[in-house]
Amino acid sequence: MDFSLNEIQVMLADSIEKFIDNDYDFESRQKFADSDTGYSAEVWQTFAELGWTAVPFSEDDGGFDGGPVDVMVLMERFGRGLVVEPYLANVVLAGGILKRVASAEQKEQWLHPIVTGELQCALAFVEPQARYNIANVATTASADGDGWVLNGSKGYVLNGRNAKMIVVPARSSGDQSDEDGISLFAIDASADGLSITDYATIDGHQAAEIQLQDVRVEAAAVLGDVGAAFATLDATIDDATLAVCAEAIGIMQKLQDKTVEYSKNRMQFGVPIGSFQALQHRMVDMLTACEQSQSLLMWAVMVNAENGDDAKQAISSIKYQVGVAGRKVGEEAVQIHGGMGVTWELDVAHYFKRLTAIGQIFGNADWHLDKLARL
Amino acid sequence: MNVTFTAEELAFREEVRGFFRDKFPSRLREQQLRGIPLEKGDYIKYQKLLNEQGWAGVNWPVEYGGTGWSAVQKYMFMIEAAEAYAPEIIAFGLNMVGPVIYSFGNEEQKQRFLPDILESNVWWCQGYSEPGSGSDLASLKTRADLAGDHFVVNGTKTWTTLGQYADWIFLLARTNTDVARRQEGISFLLADMKTPGISVKPIITLDGEHEVNEIHFEDVKIPVENLIGEEGKGWTYGKVLLQHERTNIAGVARSEVRLKQLRAQAAQSVRGGAPLEQDSNFMRKLAATEVELKAMEYTQLRTLAAVASGKAPGPESSILKITGTEMQQAIDTLYMEAAGYYALPFVPHQYAPDFGDAFVGEGAETTTSLRYFNFRKASIYGGSNEIQKNIIAKHVLGL
Predict the structure, then answer these.
(1) What percent of chain B has pLDDT above 90?
(2) CB-based contact A369 B288, cutoff 8 Å
(3) Cα A181 to Cα A226: distance, rounded to the nearest angstrom
(4) B-chain residues within 8 Å CB-CB of A264?
């Protein structure tokens, strides 16, 4: 049992922290979020140069062979820096599917440029009616000669605005919520019949609603085996869930630090507000929530890195924890910052909004608690 | 980062498991499982068994006869002890006064007291709180006035757990009233409970049990050689002890075993009724508690790892005290809720060894409410949880 990072992970952590401190202040972040693409292509290039886009991929795929611990190191720090670049959508989600099932040709076409930072992709894992059940896929894929024709709707497609290729799960057989019968298709964003309505999300990220109307693709667009995509999808969403939990904990720690700091400087009634016991106890509760979440994250990440028997339980546990503790820490941070906490100007509100968004995706606290209750 | 254990650690776990399997009396296990209170002799018997194995001083340094175990070994021991339904080690000697004596006592005191603590020959109790000094411990009024080769002690100590069994007491008493800070002028003294002038008065708690006591000191003569460390520095020594106490209070391993048992119990029908696991509200509360506990387990492991790397248990032990006691209470509440009507019969007498009448309820059902009531104490003792928050605010957050 060892809670320490290895040498490479320490170096990775240092390089991200240095980048955030020197080149990624809050004003820049807001500027990137407000830009047409919703992120900075220049920053993304830096990510690639520093090797961060290669972290979770095998050496054969041109990656660094990183596992859940390495991704945690990265995402915690992205959380603290409130990074808006589409690492989750492009590297963890789209890259996560491709690294698992793409053929050599498909990897050459899509995965390698993701690893080198040259391509933006997306994974359309949400359907409007499905809520959090990723097996609920109503989008259909019908065989058509040597290709397929897809029809249906996808919601909350992260990075949908920038993606050149979108991985689309579609039902090639079975009933709407069957795990069997789901297939994955790599679809060019400019394909005929595919329409994209993109929008900003509350947390400064961007996503899209996508309609597929008789979108025709060749057989070469199928990723992995026809009708057997659920396990791939599920494993990729698990990776992504752990990744956003790590990001959330970075955010929670940042909010905790900022709130304590603010309470030491903000004077009311002639004294710092941090001298009030009513606030001290709330900040201690925040600290406890942060520490408990950090501990649980470490467990979840280690168990998943080692493919332990309780890997699934660990994922639901940490996502539930982040949902509950994240909301508590976020709301308390805003409350203790008083009027300033509810302004657009202060970064606290934006950390809070990102934390809130993380609570809503990949299954909220109730969704995961329900899974745990039925274990 | 990894959660795997080394071959040596796994072998150690087997050794501990073997000890509890082969040497821990099944009668004690049975009593613990059914919630039947143990008696003084039961605790002593268990601790003597541990000592024969060299395992009594779990947290003690090797030079004083301790185990010298690593963080992982301590953790494994706690888990195995809990799995075997072994009782708590009575903390007052082994976890409280022992560490103070080996840390701050003189050579003569170490030789005089430590072996009997390790061997559980002497039952210790704690004289900290007073009727007027609860969480505000520094306001204590018990006086110890120097008179030649002894102190004369007058005052009252309260909430003294199992003081009715005790052979010796360690206490904080004021030896100097002319001080700048209230924390100064307090001394750490040891007294034989048979010393004339000491009397023990039971306090019955809300569950009907006699667990705590009030201890009166009336012109009690304590020899100066029973003063630990320097006169007036008792607060410093006492604080170290409280930090050890807080880490121990958390009781993570025991909570894990109790929750596991509750989940297993929920899957079974009781008296032919529907199993509790069909109650989704209950199961969601159980699951939420399990998550919280898993987080605590890793917080404790992180703390143990920090201690193992040479740091003393610091103020973060206060976090464990808060979460640990809240956890015990949450589990008590779940057990009581699970028992439904059968939490209500007030029949502690039926657990006496010679009880011959009809037994009410199944297993430990009727003890669940008693434990729920009894453990309201957990968020109050050892410095109330609100005091812990003050400590964390000051020492961790710097407020």
Answers:
(1) 75
(2) yes
(3) 7
(4) 398-399
Instruction: Please write the tens of the pLDDT for every residue from A188-239.
Output: 999 999 999 999 999 999 999 999 999 999 999 999 999 999 999 999 999 9
> Parallel, antiparallel, or unpaired: how do β-strands A271-272 and A267-268 relate?
antiparallel
Average model confidence (pLDDT) for chain B? 92
Separation CA A175–CA A135 (nearest Å): 10
Q: Model-level pTM?
A: 0.93
A239 by Cβ neighbours in 10 Å (0-12 / 13-18 / 19+) ranks as buried
Q: Give dist(CA A201, CA A195) in Å, integer.
A: 19
Chain A residues with CB-CB distance to B259 below 8 A: none
Which pair of structure tokens corresponds to residue A303? 């168990």
CB contact (8 A) between residue B4 and residue A369? no
> Which of B3, B316, B397 has its CB closest to that of A1?
B3
In Å, how far are A154, B193, B345 from B169, measured between CA atoms? 71, 6, 36
Rounded CA separation B1/B121 (Å): 43
Q: What is the mean pLDDT of residues A298-314?
A: 94
ipTM: 0.94
**In terms of DSSP H, where are the helices of B152-251?**
234-249
Q: Give B150's contacts (C-beta < 8 A, 6+ positions apart).
A: B221, B222, B223, B224
A248-278, pLDDT tens digit by residue?
A: 999 999 999 999 999 999 999 999 999 999 9
Instruction: Write phi, then psi, for B146 (nearest 5 degrees).
Output: -70, 130
Supply A138's token pair: 């109503």
Helices (H), chain B: 7-23, 26-33, 40-52, 71-83, 91, 98-104, 107-118, 234-249, 252-266, 280-308, 317-339, 368-374, 385-395
Taking CB atoms and an 8 Å limit, are A295 and B295 in contact across chains? yes
Residue B219 backbone phi and psi in degrees, to 5: 45, 50
Q: Do B299 and A292 touch (CB under 8 A)?
A: yes
Cα distance between residue B227 and residue B212, in whole Å? 25
DSSP summary character for residue B67: -
pLDDT in tens, B217-232: 999 999 999 999 999 9
